[in-house]
Design brief:
Keywords: Signal. The protein is of the alpha/beta class. Helix content is about 40%, strand content about 10%.
Length: about 475
């Protein structure tokens, strides 16, 4: 393989090892058959996941799972999927790097199936949980295939590791080990050691076809819910589509168009085009890179159609609202999906999608005030505002009144005003804790990002009491 995967130090590998497959070593050489564990092979058609319900996904399986004849899945934070051919194995995504800190890695599980080398590796997009394990699978003869945008995305995400790694740790605590920081030195070492893939084949918008061992594969550029660089792999004779993260983390979810952990926006119209392509292909099975394979031609068609129509509906509603002169906060409150277009919100949220679509079209400047153009935030006025009021007492009373009436966001604004002037005010700190607990209860553990962020805020507010 023509590659220069830059030296991966132990610290660099440790960016995302935890939560990848089983923690227990195994000596078995058998591929686990269907039905031998409590975790299902395929996604239930009535699946309604809530946040962290699937924490530790795949750890029940100490071996690769046979999905259908010749196709195996090694489960982890993200999955690695292998297709057997007479001329070598095909791999779709690698999962997180597992070596040298883990036993029984995703690579170990798949290698026990037949021990053949990998002739092709398709990396569906430039998130580390999908490509950082590449050294465990590739050899000098492996053809690595990516979409052109992958090259830019892997670099900018590496450049931002000191900024995004603490956020990723908050939202995915089991996937990033606890490491001493040494004043930022650890993060800098990880950033320096992080792998950069130099692929043999880079595709643009045109499909890329190859045939190995008598089996045909078509790689399509399918911009999706996790980035513009997403590709999908189609096996036309078998009607099986490997979708990467085109649907996001879960099939049937509202897409996470902009993650609150911080990343580039994902755009609705290319996503709709990707969904239309998938409907044209008429897959009988899809195998995403997270969680379960999905079977059932009609169920797949119905869910993709509903996802497409829901995204298009919201995109149209945002544009209509913008043209009518409505502000983004009004649209976040007003736009709802009709019942027949319902998508669960375990990862993305519809209201966040409204804001993401707005900003993807027009950017950060909303022309509501001249101050948007300058560097002084509203918070800079808080001390002077409280000075005009005369004390923090009336502000705290107003925050309490808002909490009592269920206006949690307003209550938090007033609490933050007091916090800017009197950070150790005990009454205000207790009130902040109560508001955050109420927000957490309202969230009801449905959306992963909302729940994890509120959990962290509640924990810190409680520690400050």
């Amino acid at each position: 393989m023509k590659k220069t995967l830059r030296a991966v130090l132990m610290a660099g590998v440790a960016v995302g090892l935890a939560g990848c497959g089983s923690d227990e070593p195994t000596t078995t050489s058998q591929v686990k058959a269907e039905g031998e564990t409590k975790e299902p092979i395929y996604q239930p058609h009535d699946w309604q996941p809530k946040t962290r319900d699937l924490d530790g996904f795949g750890r029940e399986y100490t071996d690769a799972i046979k999905i259908v004849d010749g196709i195996y899945q090694a489960r982890g934070t993200a999955n690695a999927v292998m297709v057997e051919t007479d001329e070598g194995n095909i791999l779709i995504d690698t999962g997180l790097a597992g070596r040298p800190l883990q036993e029984n890695t995703l690579a170990d599980k798949l290698n026990r199936v037949n021990g053949k080398p990998f002739s092709h590796i398709v990396l569906t997009h430039a998130h580390a949980d999908h490509y950082s394990g590449i050294k465990e699978f590739a050899n000098d003869d492996t053809e690595v295939i990516v979409q052109r945008e992958f090259l830019f995305n892997q670099q900018y995400l590496k450049d931002l590791i000191p900024h995004v790694m603490p956020k990723n740790k908050l939202f995915f605590p089991n996937d990033i080990p606890d490491l001493p920081d040494f004043g930022g030195l650890t993060t800098k070492l990880i950033q320096k050691a992080y792998p950069i893939v130099e692929p043999e084949t880079v595709i643009d918008s045109e499909p890329y076809e190859f045939t190995t061992g008598g089996q045909k594969f078509v790689v399509y550029h399918t911009p999706g819910a996790e980035g513009y660089d997403n590709v999908s792999v189609w096996m036309p004779e078998r009607k099986i589509l490997f979708t990467g993260d085109v649907f996001g983390h879960m099939f049937g979810m509202w897409p996470n168009l902009t993650t609150i952990r911080g990343e580039r926006a994902r755009f609705t119209r290319p996503y709709v085009e990707s969904l239309n392509l998938m409907l044209e292909l008429e897959p009988e099975m899809i195998i995403p890179s997270h969680f379960y394979p999905v079977q059932g031609k009609e169920y797949i068609k119905e869910t993709i159609t509903r996802t497409r129509d829901a995204v298009q509906y919201v995109d149209d509603a945002v544009i209509e609202g913008m043209n009518a002169g409505k502000d983004v906060y009004t649209l976040m409150e007003e736009i709802k999906l009709p019942e027949e277009l319902y998508l669960f919100e375990a990862h993305g949220k519809l209201s966040w999608g409204v804001k993401s679509i707005w900003e993807a079209y027009t950017g950060w400047f909303k022309m509501e005030t001249a101050n948007e153009m300058y560097s002084v935030p509203m918070q800079a006025t808080y001390p002077e505002l409280i000075e005009l009021v005369g004390s923090t007492g009336p502000i705290i009373n107003k925050a309490q009144s808002n909490l009592d009436s269920g206006e949690l966001e307003k209550a938090l604004y007033f609490i933050e005003m007091v916090e800017a002037v009197e950070p150790e005010n005990a009454q205000n700190k207790k009130l902040k804790y109560d508001v955050l607990v109420a927000m957490k209860e309202r969230a009801n553990d449905i959306n992963h990002y909302e729940t994890m962020f509120l959990n962290d805020l509640v924990t810190r507010a409680k520690a400050a009491l």
